[in-house]
Amino acid sequence: MRRSRQLLLATILVFSAAACDEKLADIAGPTPDLEPTFASIQKDIFETTDSAGRTSCVTCHTNVGRNPAGGLNLVHDLAYDQLVNVASTQLPTLKRVNPGSPDTSYIVHKIEGRAGITGRRMPFNGPPYLTDGQALILKRWIELGAPRN
Known about the structure:
Layout: H1 2-19, H2 24-27, H3 38-46, H4 79-83, H5 106-112, H6 132-143
């Protein structure tokens, strides 16, 4: 029953977004090509420093010459398996990405700087942080079930 409700919600969100006059490019700010897909989030958020100066996530979350920050490696071939359905090392009661539930995804807590996080808001060397629009698109991907697309 819960899975059916999640699928219904995801379907409504997709059709609502499509029916809206709001274009993703209008809310994505310094990453105008950002879409609610893993491939886009990987390229435009994790791997790229945006035009506002927000540092790419792989600046710290990589194993190239170092241990990845927080034990989270966001390099291209590892990121999805390190994020989705994996318990956070900092707050093990939450998954890093909990498909269908951005509010219980620790990555959302970290990028928004919510109370109860361990350490600082991400990116660590911010501001600038992700814009509200960038965060919304990341949350839309999670709401859609965090597919490997």
